[in-house]
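worker-03 picked up job from queue 'complexes'. Input manifest follows; two sequence lines, order preserved.
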Amino acid sequence: MPSPARSRFALLSVAVLAVLLTFGLAALVDPPAADAQKKILNIAAKEPESLDPHSSILGQSQAIFRFMYRGLTRFAIKDGKVTTAEVEPDLAESWTLSPDGTVWTFKLKKGVQFHKGFGEMTAEDVKFSFERQIKRLPGTRFGVNLGVIKAIEVVDPHTVQIALKAFDPIFLLRMVGYQQGYIISKKAADKHGDQFKWNPVGTGPFYFERHSPREKIVMRAFDKYHGGRPQIDEVHWYDVPEDATKLIGLEKGTFDLLYPEAVTADVADQVKKMGAVLDRRGPGGQERFYINMTKPPFDDIRVRRAFMHAIDRKAIKETMYPGDLARVAPSCVPPGYFGHVPMTFPEYSPEKARKLLAEAGHPNGFTIKNYFISKSFFYPKVLTLAQEQLKKVGINVELQVVEHATFHENIRKNLDPFVLYGGTRITDADPWLSLFFDSKEIPDPATGNKGTNFAHYRAIDDLLVAGRVERDVKKRAAIYAEAQKRIERDLVCLPISDVPGTWARNPKRVSTPFDPNYGEFALHYSYNYPEMLKIIH
Amino acid sequence: MFRYVARRLLVAVPMLLGAMSIVFFAMRILPGDPCLAMMGDQATTEALADCTQNLGLHRPLAVQYVDYLWRSVQFDFGKSFRQGYPVSEYIARMFPHTLVLVLSSAVVAALVGIPIGIVSALKRRNPLIDYPLRLIALLGLSMPVFWLGILLLIVFSLRLDIFPLIGGGDLDGVIYMLKTGEVFTSPGDFLAMVGDVLHHLALPALALGFTLAATVSRLSRSAMLEVISQDYIRTARAKGQGERAVIYKHAFRNMMVPLLTIIGLFVAIALTGTVLTETVFTRPGLGKMLVDAIGARDYPLAQGAITVFTMIIIVVNLVVDMLYAVVDPRITYR
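worker-03 finished. Artifact:
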């Protein structure tokens, strides 16, 4: 009879063996055969916070919406390129505008189906999709972009009339399948209530299948998609927060497409080395400085000019995004936006900066204490580079690196005398300039205004009002050109880089009909037409 | 025994309340507004006001606090600010992933750590055995789990292509089949699913288990050293018992009491370890969820997760205390 000691030892050995065997055998398990025949597109990105297209501004959420939803209009495909400057019909077949420019009548395409048997899309769904945002139902975010609407009337199931408070030159852009423009199923929204965000129903090429929180979202090809069934059978959208993991996955073949958090030179190198491509799309985000012109010492235009002479924009852009990863921004309204004109900024010259500072009464420069900057995205890197350059002319910036949310809070309390900021908007000068230069948007802790006019600028309010009622395209363009001229004159904005929206793609697995290099303009942080992506075997 | 457990459970109530209060106020002291974190640079004044109103953050802090405690007593932790899922449902879906990770890494840690600790204590005078074993323990202690994790991923996932890169396998499916009884109707599918879960679990369990094994081995080594210097061990040897019998029959069981304390601690360490492990291996679970929730200032989710963590630690420690009496009959509870 074995001793207890010996039998315990044997037990332990068996346990070790069992564990090793289990893990080892598990390694041999193959995925079910059915999956192998399906054309599955594997995407690595962060997890969206919601699948209700009217509820999230996060990049990854807006990227996935385009797979499931469509709008009345869409960005036009012209000469094999997608452009953000023009729109063409999508869920709407055609439209007319009343002579006074305030009533739009949209004729809807017949037979467009919603996912999961929620029936045909009708004018009721269009009315509902916009009204839920205008009424600012809990969770909706883009009602402000539809504030121009006075009333929506269902004329018949396939005709909807939208009356505006005043003529709106960018109304058709607002109707694009992007943010506020997506049409959702009224029946599905009524049925699911606040859980619609995880039971989404749209008219897009893919429908929602399931969500495993913190793991993946599965979408499937929609057989009744009005543009024809996509070639891809399933889309698996994995929650992968780390760029390093995404890259390993792309190399290994686990992922076909990935949405990097930040496209650095290192990421671009790795992508090229493994034979993958970067799909670059404009207009992308712009990184720029706003200088608070009401706060000493920047209330003196000579100090603002000195600041701009001190910043070497090209050096910052090249360090952050070498070569063709981004472009030095030519204007405070990015290219690709209606109304954009190139602007001139004080050239890089530390000598001129020092001279101007001396003239303004700061011969030894000055120190900015407690300058808050976000620890996320491009913010800390760009600011550190700027900090070094400013130091050379005697402007010492003492940085406090904080959480992104804290940064947002502090810049709205006007704690930073100049603010580094990024972002993308509807591709027209009106919404862009209105957000950053309209006096109504000046942040003020006393009144609780949390706007984004960080320059505290007031000099183009009249132009913004004029631009909103102007129906002549050329005249509108002239108005915004004048606005950019004034901003240039007053030295309140210094754009640094225009960074395209970039995804990495394995070209041996997935093809797109558009040129990787700006062949697509997209606001969706993703592919405008995911139904055109094809799996190559 | 029953009175002891009841008393301990009663003491646990203020402990839990304290932890819940700390996390409630700590989340609010943290700079950064949940609405701003959600909306980022597209937040307009109106949108922010709407969001604050919808999340109930416009109410006085005291009102929010009382409301939170009152709901928590009814096991209603609210809804995630970001994703809108009920927190309890969210945690219930994440918990199994973390549980299997903690259990499997515990198995790895125990199977590696305890034998190393015992052998290194017994062979402490043989540098050829003791030193390499202590070196392994030192390596485990000094190697952060995220570094070991990435190393394992590069070798076994990218280069050798034996294990998957991300995910936790279809654990939901396994649970579903167990719940509905489908496990009996299609055992083949069930085994394939379990295999897939284990396949995904192997590397994270090894990474977390190995780093924890180092702690376990050091603690079991000192526990064993303490035990073998006791009089009754000398007596046993003097009686002429064989060394194996002395160790396994007399020393091992007595070593279990300090070892149980380690297991109590171990759960706390392992839970903390899941935060990094789940992030590196991109596995769903409570740890990854907690990190994301704090970053996003998702108050209800972070509060719910920490409450669950606290409850787990309280329960495990209670169970450990009760187990003392099982392994050592001299211990009684009144």
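worker-03 released lock.
Chain B has a mean pLDDT of 84.
The first helix of chain B runs from residue 2 to 29.
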